[in-house]
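User: Can you predict the 3D structure for this chain?
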Amino acid sequence: MSEDHLTVVIRGLEAFGHHGVLAAETALGQRFVVDVELALIHSVATATDDLADTVDYASLADAIVEIVTGPPVALLERLAGAIADRVLRDPAVREVVVTVHKPHVALPHTVEETAVTLRRGR
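Assistant: Here is the predicted structure, written as C-alpha cells:
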C-alpha cells in the first residue's frame, strides 16, 4: 500500500502592506497577494475528518495577513521568509512553498506583477 501525501493550498490571499525598497512604497503601501502550499507530515485527516489532524487554514490565513500588514520589510524575499517561518511552526507541516505577489510594482516598464517564490522545509 502506498502512503498518501497531503497538500493544503491557500491561493490569492490579499492584504495591504507597506513593504518595498522605495520610500513611497513604505509610505503609501499597497496590495500584496500571497499563495502558500503546505506539504503535511501525515494525512490522517483523510480518515479521521478531524481538524486537529490537519492544518487550520483559517487561522493560518489570519497569521499570514498579520505578517503582511505588520512592520515593513524592504524585500519580498524577506516577507516570504517570515511567512514560511510562521507556517513551519505548525507541527503538521513538513514543507511550505510561499509566493508573494506584488501587483503594483514601481518599475519604469509595464509589468503585470513581480513575485518571489520560496520553498522551505524542515
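The CA atoms of residues 95 and 121 lie 4 Å apart. The domain at 7-121 is CATH 3.30.1130.10 (GTP Cyclohydrolase I, domain 2).
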